[in-house]
Amino acid sequence: MLFRSPILAACLLAIFTLPASADSNNATVMTTVKPMAMLLRAIAPASVEVAYLVRDGHSGHHYHMRPSEGRALQQSRQFYWLGAEFEPIMSKAAQHPSSVNLTQGLANMPTLTKGGSHLWMNPVTAMALAESAASSLTSAYPDNAEEIAANLAALKQQVATIDQQLRADLSDSQQRDFVALHDAYGNLASHYGLTQLAAFYGEHEQSLGAASRAALQQQLQGVDNVCIFSQPQFALKPVETLLADHQLTVLELDPLAADIEFSSHGFQQFMQHIGRELPKCF
């Protein structure tokens, strides 16, 4: 649940039922997390401000909206999210009167898979989300239609180039297995033909149980080098202790892009970072 406090939930409901203020027509759109905001920033008109709810360094799985964030959300022109299937904790925020579910109509895409729900980490899915966002932005800002179309075309070309290069870099690799700190990479793995052996912390951040730890150790018997997908929100030490008999190659693949500069080229830089990290293992 997004709100454990009935008082806070009631306050947010009151915010959404207030008469629209003068600020409600400002050129600001909001989304849930930084990578989605970077995707929007890449295609939105330069005159439109893009903001996101989950603060850097925090987990979206336990998000609690502050009153100031509720006010900012109410004053924004649109709210973009991935729908209740992938971001259930944002269902209350999606009561925004101009809420846009970017996955609506994409449910039959073969790349739209569960596995951490971080859909933006798969370049094909990310570009489908970008196309959906561009359509909505064009409706909201028709005077900027040409700028939005040009931004989308440039983004798609740049991401396709990064994706093509990474596929080439991975083409000769015989190693395809990895262990993740967090169950966040299902869509990335499916796109590049990688296999997640285990996630030490599940989607809701519970740690791997004793039986699963023993099964992982058994599975990795005879494997010298183990690739670990790490991210700053989760402790690496327990995994290093568990797999102390193996040589570990640790890649930092932060699904929330905390260390990537937020800019109109931020999403491309995020994909480039993934492109630099993955060949270190595969």
**What percent of the residues sit in helical stretches (DSSP H or I)?**
25-40%
Regions with little confidence, pLDDT below 50 for 5+ residues: 1-25
Rg, Å, rounded: 20 Å
Shape: globular
Number of helices: 9
How far the N terminus sits from the C terminus, by CA atoms, comes to 38 Å
Main sheet makeup: 4 strands, parallel
Give me the count of strands: 8
Compressed to H and E, one letter per element, the order equals: HEHEHEEHHEHEHEHEH
Strand order of the largest sheet: 2-1-3-4
Strand content: 5-15%
Structural class, by secondary structure, is alpha/beta
**Average pLDDT reading:** 86
Oligomer: single chain
Organism: Sinobacterium norvegicum
Keywords: Ion transport, Signal, Transport, Zinc, Zinc transport
Protein name: High-affinity zinc uptake system protein ZnuA
Signal peptide: 1-22
